[in-house]
Design brief:
Length: about 250
C-alpha cells in the first residue's frame, strides 16, 4: 500500500503533530527502513506503532536487533510486515526465530561492529571498506576479499535506506538532536544514512534551547520530527543476584 500526504503538519516546517502524520507520504510496500535502538533502549516505538498501523509490507529493515515479541520491531514481525532483516543480534525474539526457521523471513547477519560501520559509511557517502572481521567465515561468502600484509580482508558496503527512524532524548524544532547513553549506539549513525530521516523525541524544545556542543545529530540530517509521550522503561533481561549474608550495603 501507499499512504497519502497529511495536512496535519504543525507550523514549523519539520514538526508534526503525531507519528502517523510524520510518516504520511513516505511509506510504500517493499521499501527499506533503518530503525534505531539498542536492545530496548532508544527505540522509536511511536513511529514503529504508526508503521504497523499503516499496513505497509514487504519491508527490508536495518536494525541492530529485532525487538522482542511485543515491543519494537517485534510488533512488525507479528503482523508479517518485514520481509528481510539486516541485523547483528536477534536472540530475544521467539517470533523472529520461528519465522526464520520456517523460511518466512530473510536475514542478513552482520558482526555488530561491521553493521555499525556499514551504516556510518553509508551516511558519509563511502561505498565500502575492508575489514578482517568475518574473514574465513560464512560472513565472507560471496563477498570480495583482499590479502593485505598476509591477512585476509572482506569488502563490506555502506548502507543507505529509503527511510531512517530514530529516537532522541531531546530535539528542537529544526531537528537538532541529543541522545542519552546507550541510545547513542546506532541512532546517530542511522540519522545520517536515510534518504529521509524522521526523528521521535521525548522532549521537543525551541531552537536555541539546546547547548550547541551537546548536539549529536545536526538538524540538516532530519526532515521530520515528532514528540512522543508516555514511554515505557523496559528491561530486556532482568537478573537479580541474591544478597549474601556478608553483603555490604552502601
Amino acid at each position: 500500500m501507499t499512504t497519502t500526504a497529511s495536512a496535519g503538519k504543525a507550523d514549523s516546517g519539520k514538526v508534526y503533530a503525531s507519528a502517523a502524520e510524520a510518516l504520511a507520504g513516505l511509506l510504500r510496500d517493499g521499501m527499506s527502513i533503518m530503525c534505531g535502538g539498542f536492545g530496548m533502549c532508544g527505540v522509536p516505538e511511536k513511529l514503529i506503532d504508526a508503521l504497523r498501523d499503516s499496513g505497509v509490507k514487504g519491508l527490508t529493515v536495518v536494525s541492530n536487533n529485532a525487538g522482542v515479541d511485543d515491543f519494537g520491531l517485534g510488533k512488525l514481525l507479528l503482523t508479517h510486515q518485514i520481509r528481510k532483516m539486516i541485523s547483528s543480534y536477534v536472540g530475544e525474539n521467539r517470533e523472529f526465530e520461528r519465522q526464520y526457521l520456517s523460511g518466512e523471513i530473510e536475514i542478513e547477519f552482520n558482526p555488530q561492529g561491521t553493521l555499525a560501520e556499514r551504516i556510518r559509511a553509508g551516511g558519509a557517502g563511502i561505498y565500502g571498506f575492508y575489514t578482517r572481521t568475518g574473514a574465513g567465515t560464512r560472513v565472507a561468502e560471496g563477498k570480495e576479499t583482499r590479502l593485505v600484509d598476509g591477512d585476509t580482508y572482506v569488502l563490506e558496503t555502506g548502507l543507505v535506506t529509503d527511510l531512517a527512524l530514530v529516537r532522541a532524548w531531546k530535539g528542537d524544532t529544526e531537528g537538532n538532536l541529543i541522545y542519552r547513553k546507550t541510545a547513542r549506539n546506532f541512532n546517530p549513525m542511522m540519522a545520517t544514512a536515510g534518504r529521509v530521516t524522521v526523528a521521535e523525541v521525548e522532549q521537543l524544545v525551541e531552537v536555541g534551547s539546546l547547548e550547541p556542543d551537546r548536539i549529536h545529530t545536526p538538524g540538516i540530517f532530519v526532515q521530520r520530527i515528532v514528540e512522543g509521550h508516555a514511554y515505557s522503561r523496559r528491561i530486556e533481561q532482568r537478573t537479580v543476584r541474591k544478597r549474601g549474608p556478608n553483603a555490604v550495603v552502601a
